[in-house]
Design goal:
By secondary structure, the protein is an alpha/beta fold. It has a single domain (10-97, 126-159), classed as Rossmann fold (3-Layer(aba) Sandwich). The protein has helices at residues 21-27, 31-39, 69-81, 90-94, 106-113, 146-157, 167-171, and strands at residues 10-15, 41-45, 57-63, 82-88, 137-139. The protein binds iron/sulfur cluster. Iron/sulfur cluster is lined by residues 18-19, 21-22, 63, 89-91, 96, 142-143. Its cofactor is [3Fe-4S] cluster.
């Protein structure tokens, strides 16, 4: 009898408020990404595929900050369905440039930018993912470092613990 093929880890990539630059870093990995793609099942990655599987996911990469109530509900669902959640980039890890609105009246910005501000539903703040759900690993930078991303993905796929800088030590 043939030996059953082991199940490949399921990878999902999510976007919240962001410029997509960190997801593009992943796509820029080209050859290395092909090796990763062969080792995982890409279950959700709208930037690159049509895959929209509902989960559960072994690894979720999350780009972007939380700026709407809908974002927040979506994030909580993603967290429930993800074994490991990794935030990628400054938007996800610190709120990004859009977090400037947290220091001012968000309504002023909405009125200045949109022709019909009454249709805009936004929170007063732009906040990092870790403010709302537990995060397993953070990749910082704007955009993230490709080598670091590949290291983390490869380690997680192989069931190893990724080695990342101790960011807390950097600010002490
Ligand atoms: Fe774009 Fe920088 Fe945010 Fe990444 S961290 S999504 S590159 S703005």
């Amino acid at each position: 009898m043939a030996t059953p093929t082991p199940r490949r880890p399921r990878l999902a990539v999510w976007k919240f408020a962001s410029c997509d630059g960190c997801q593009l870093s992943l796509l820029d990995c080209e050859d290395e990404l092909l090796a990763v793609a062969g080792a995982v099942e890409i279950a959700y990655f709208l930037e690159a595929t049509r895959a929209t599987a509902p989960g559960p996911y072994d690894v979720s990469l999350v780009e972007g900050s939380i700026t709407t109530a809908h974002d927040l509900r979506r994030l909580k669902t993603i967290r429930r369905r993800s074994k490991v959640l990794v935030t990628i980039g400054a938007c996800a890890t610190s709120g990004g440039i859009q977090a400037l609105k947290s220091m001012a009246d968000a309504g002023d910005y909405v009125r200045a930018v949109y022709a019909h501000p009454a249709f805009i539903r936004t929170l007063d703040t732009s906040t990092p993912i870790a403010d709302h759900v537990p995060v397993d690993y953070e990749l910082r930078g704007c955009p993230i470092d490709r080598g670091q991303l590949l290291h983390v993905l490869t380690a997680l796929i192989q069931g190893r613990q990724p080695r990342l800088p101790n960011y807390a030590a950097c600010v002490e």
